[in-house]
Amino acid sequence: MIEHAFRGSKRYWSWLLFLGLIILAGFYFYMRQFSYGLGITGMSRNVSWGLYIAQFTFIVGVAASAVMVVLPYYLHDYKAFGKITILGEFLAISSVIMCMLFVFVDLGQPFRVLNIFLYPTFHSLMFWDVVALTGYLVLNVIITRVTLAAERNSIPPPKWIRPIIIISIPWAVSIHTVTAFLFAGLAGRPFWLTAVLAPRFLASAFSAGPALLLLLCLLLRKLTNFDAGEEAIKKLGMIITYAMCVNVFLILMEFFTTFYSHIPEDAAHMQYLYFGLDGKARLVPWMWTSAVLAVVSLAILLVPRARSNHRTLGLACIAVFLSIWIDKGLGLVITGFIPSPFGKVIQYWPTLPETLIALGIWAIGVFFITIFYKMALSIRREIEA
Amino acid sequence: MSISRRTLLKLAGITALGVTAEKYATAHAGSTAAKVLSKAVGAGKRLTKSNVQQKVRLAMVVDLRKCVSNQGCTKCIDACNRGHNIPDLGDSKDAIKWIWKEPYESAFVDQENFYMRDEFKNKMVPVFCNNCDNPPCVEVCPTQATFQRPDGIVMMDWHRCIGCRYCMAACPYGSRSFNWRDPRPFIKDINPDYPTRTKGVVEKCTWCDERVDQGLLPLCVEACPEKAMVFGNLNDPNSEVRQLLKDNFSVRRKPGLGTSPEVYYLV
Q1: Predicted complex ipTM
Q2: Pick the CATH number of B56-266 from 3.40.50.1980, 3.30.70.20, 3.50.50.60, 1.10.3290.10
Q3: B200, A116: Cβ pair inside 8 Å?
Q4: pLDDT digit string (tens) for A7-18?
Q5: How far apart (Å, rounded) are the C-alpha atoms in residues A384 and A378?
Q6: Which of the four, A282, A359, B91, B106, has the lowest number of CB atoms within 10 Å?
């Protein structure tokens, strides 16, 4: 199966080489971080989590979103997703790998990472998050391996894989719920202390993830002879529309509770994020960009004609993805720390090494997506031939 | 169809037994189930003083009326920094702080009061780890690198800490510091009796557990020229801390979060 990853066009190889160079740059800066310490990043004693954990949070959502194609296909026997389900699962695998790397580079003592398993601590959500992510990775590796092998041999997949696929559905929900609990259970951080955080995480995941998958499908259609099928694209668009509506609705819920109750400790964070506090407003332009992108995406998605046009649908998906990337991959984690427990506004911005390390991890993710998709599509072409 | 009297009585007996059992069950099963459930989810844990049964529960009382940190006194801070090999990184983003000063309105950020007594408006308050009864940092640590001693001190195992900084996110008091870089070049005079730390681990004040175990007072308490800091056993009704708390009005930082901080400030 893997042999397909080693055979490809010139374009395929130069793309991998390009990604490889970004990965190398990221690795170089990680080595510098390794020798200097995490002080090389923009994080501080006040904002002690930054881009790494924020990216981790966003990408867990992308990983979980595979369930949006797995569930209709396997549970409801929705045939139109037959071609793209494997793509969703491979996207999940690549995303979980990115998640694990983002947590890993955030550790001050990376060589001690196994302490999480050597001293399992059931009252720590971090422990459960690691368990959930590892389990999800294992599940998806088994599922893709078995179903793809069956497809290659033109036989139905073995019966025993079905319960594993069924388990992977609630498991996908669990990875993002537990990730939300990581934040939502901290009494001292009012910005995250909201029961709506986990539902919000899921809604944003189920819009941003399928948006990325849809974009990949459109891209594959352009670059290769793979066609996801009109019905699958349409249905994905519908899923994104619903999930994005729920996501925006839940954000507005936060706005209401925070600003109508105007409890100072609660409101200060939102104030900083959207309007600025004490004259400091580094995230404000980003958040309004995110808000505008959300409105634009909904304006396209809610109009059936615009949604069925691939060009406008593609634009909507880019808007959804970027909007949620800013909201979750930047605003949500950082703002939990601003203002500080002392009510002081001490801002954060990632440094260049930090950004390049993050970019390197993204490149690793895209690298995996590329070779996985190459494998899947080559096997399909082989069957057709 | 006829039923003998014997059978009827038997039946009645069984029914009565059944009804009684059911009544008993409904009356008690609810509460038992509730108990099991609340135990499982840890409900009510933060509502009680969990360490009240212990013989020793250490606590700190800071008399802000005596404290002269406004006049530039940094004796407690200096003693701690020297004794614990705390690097001098200034007030940079990498700063390590075990005990330091914060303005009153920052230390007690939830006690907004515009018309406060003048002397407290500009008061500088010594802040440090509260060694909470229900420490959220201990709850979240994935490796038990931070843990609580039976006497209440919240400890740090610098050899086990993986540097994930979840404890820093969980602490409502900003009491924890991370070694963003190698601290050793920034230690002025290394105290050979106390460990230095490596980069990538979290640290904090532990009320001088190493001295407490030898029957000595924490360095800050010992260093205070005004005797504004008092340290002792909260579970001993005759201890000095208990006497002070009995006779004076005290406040704690963010008690509403249920962490039960064990530093009491007399105001």
Answers
A1: 0.93
A2: 3.30.70.20
A3: no
A4: 888 999 999 999
A5: 10
A6: B91
